[in-house]
Amino acid sequence: MQFVNDKWYTLYHRLATGVALLVALATGVALFVPGMQDIGRQWGLTYVTLILAFFQLVYAFFYKSQIAKQGVWTTTLGTSLLQATTLVTLIHGSGKLDSWYFVYWMIVVLLSGVFGTYAVAGVFFMITIYYVSVVTDQITQSMPVNVRSGVIVLGGTLLAAIISHFIWRNQYKKQESQKLAQLSGMLANKDQQAEILIESIADGIVLINTEGKISLMNTTAALMSEWPVDEALGIDVQLVMKMKTEDGQDITPAEHPFAKALINKEKMEQTLKLIGRNGKERVVSLVVSPVVVPSKKDSVGVVAVVRDISVSRAEEGRRADFVSTASHEMRTPVAAIEGYLQLALNEKVAQVDFKARNYLEKALDSTHHLGQLFQDLLTSAKAEDGRLVSHPTVVEMGAYMEEISDSLKFSADKKGLFMDYTVGVSQDGSNSAVGGGKVIKPLYYVHVDPDRLREVVTNLSDNAVKYTDAGKISIALTGNNDVVQLYIKDTGPGIPANDVPHLFQKFYRVDSSATRTIGGTGLGLFICQKIIELYNGRIWVESAVGQGSTFYINLPRLSSQKAAELQAQEAANPLG
Questions:
Q1: Which among 42, 50, 464, 526 counts the fewest CB atoms within 10 Å?
Q2: Residue range 101-160, pLDDT digits in tens
Q3: pTM for this one?
Q4: How far apart are CA 271 and CA 386, in angstroms?
Q5: Is the separation of the CB atoms in 288 and 243 below 8 Å?
Q6: How far is CA 42 from CA 31, 143, 234, in A?
Q7: Beta partners for 304?
Q8: H-state helical runs in 416-517
Q9: What does CATH list as the number for 201-308?
Q10: Which CATH architecture has domain 393-572?
């Protein structure tokens, strides 16, 4: 289809509507005013033309609403078809080929070019069919054929059609050129908008190609790296974006986040130190993602969002120092209060009546809880900023867990719960090592700080006991060649699915009647996760409401040879 500017369709519609209104008024006068009937018949003004003109006026009333649905070209074409039908009716009723309405018909043909070349050809085809039907009717009725009028009508229509084509052809070209210009403008605007958006982002944006060269960098990234944008473009990204670990350790080229993202073709997030061209260091958070074109499978580069978090890191450090200092200072008077309360409850030191003893025991419990809160705050602050003290050594988990489980059974027995401990058995009950009809307990070596790991196991076991009213607590140890797995399973109320992803967040507690009645700081699982991560391990939970919970710990397993080598090193250097 061919289109012209919308204003021409609007003008065409207004002209056609004006003519329809004029025809309706003239037909009304001819039909209903006495003495005008003869003039009406002479000009073909009949009830049919009145109805057609009325329909055209009704259509005009809904013109704008139809444009929104069908478009201006289609809607105006409807106006043209109604007008052509009315006009042919007038021609047929007012002298046929000798009708004066053919003058307006030529105007319609000239204007029909707004709908394209095919519309012009359609108008000529329409009048040709009408001419054939009139001549056929004249021949059938043995009437003389007016060849002269026919030639004038057909020739005039053909001439008007040719003129219409040449007039509107230029408008088609202008319209197409206008669309191309608009498209070019849109593309230019989009490029400009993209540039404005990238420059307006407060974070640094760096785009590299598959060769590791910088293709795009915004001003923020240039300020962070201390490289001007025009100098950084085309340079290897590892020269411009020099990185170190957060604690200042160098990273190898293969460990550089851009290199890893190019190789692995996966999104990665990391917090590192960015070393500027002039030596200024700042802590940055990076989100590096491969750039993938939808039509291609392979990535065409990597884009990184770099955020300067130096200020927030400094604030976190000051906050952690305050919490650490306050917790440490508060522990001293709390420990003194706890000590004096214990002395007051000691029958060899003081004599108190039953009622006073009850008060003192409650005070001692509250003081112990307060001391544990300060200890948790201190530990969590150290865990966050990497100051958590750890002295890893080779630990054989079978014997280690057997010793711990014996001490943990006391709290379970006190609540009337059964606790069992198994080695080498997975959750489905299958033995992980069997030979000669006997279960062989494998040796599970890991490299951890036994005191830190005890904190984790004790915390998980205490939680299981606290939240389980009846049933049992199962502690099991299993593994394979690469991993040692420990799990603690309870028969408690379970954890809602929407709470599970947040359990290891700081101060997070499941909102339920059980958690409101059972005390806690919301720091225990956070600390457990930080401790396990010290040893490249993983901790997670699987739970369902009404079915209990199972907390898993995976730790890297040492081979017997590796364990022996580390034990020899520890023996040779007992101070670490």
A1: 42
A2: 888 888 888 888 888 777 778 877 888 887 788 778 777 877 776 677 777 878 888 888
A3: 0.48
A4: 14
A5: no
A6: 12, 20, 85
A7: 206, 288
A8: 450-466, 513-517
A9: 3.30.450.20
A10: 2-Layer Sandwich (3.30)
